[in-house]
Amino acid sequence: MSTTPLRADAQRNLERVLDAAAELFAERGCDVSVDEIARRAGVGHATVFRRFPTKDALISAVVSKQIRELTAFVEDALAEDDPGEAFRSFVWHAGEMHARDRGLHEGFTRCGGVSDVAEAKAELNGLIDQLVERAQAAGALRQDVSADDVSTLVGTAIRGAYGSSEPELWRRYVAVVLDGLAVSG
Questions:
Q1: Is 79 helix (H, G, I), strand (E, B) or coil?
Q2: Backbone dihedral angles phi then psi of residue 145, each to the nearest 5 degrees
Q3: What is the pLDDT tens value at each position of the chain, 185 positions in all?
């Protein structure tokens, strides 16, 4: 996207498109059509493509925004006094994001190689590494796990509950993962 400031109406339209895309991706995954996104945003099809020449560019913009939100959460968690509680809070927050947003994992996977997304993910992963290391140093997290392990375990727990008739099943799975990651007394 261009770094030139947009006119106020163009900026509003951009935000409406991003919000509509995020909502639809969360509800139904990334396979929703650009026409559906434009309708929900209340703009024309051409307005979407003026800002995002491909659907993947739109998905990347939504994913980048989500990564920035998660990054801000991790930065706040790193400032918490209790590293173990900060880690658990992050896991629950990430779980909430994934549970309510069907398109998040798909978007991360689909756009992971896009430079903006890859850079944002690398920054986020570095912060998660710090969060994990702090929790380990405080004795709140097993020493034999990495940030990648945490991401894989929590993500698998959440995706394992997709399609369940029990909408909060993911919470039980994540609680079991957190119990398994805790240092045994």
A1: coil
A2: -120, 150
A3: 456 777 888 788 889 999 999 999 988 888 899 999 999 999 998 989 988 998 889 998 998 888 899 999 999 999 999 999 999 999 999 888 888 887 777 777 777 667 788 888 889 999 999 999 999 999 999 999 998 898 888 888 888 877 778 878 889 999 999 999 998 76
Long-range CB contact pairs, 36-43, < 8 A, 24+ = 41/13, 41/16, 41/17, 42/16, 43/13, 43/16, 43/17
Task: Read off the amino acid at residue 135.
Answer: A
Phi and psi (nearest 5°) for 139? 80, 20
CB 85 within 8 Å of CB 182 = no
Token representation of residue 112: 């992971």
35, 169, 40, 37: which is closest to 98 by C-alpha? 169
What are the φ/ψ torsions at residue 155 (nearest 5 degrees)? -60, -40
- Return the half-sphere exposure (C-beta side, CA atoms, 13 A cut-off) of residue 161: 21
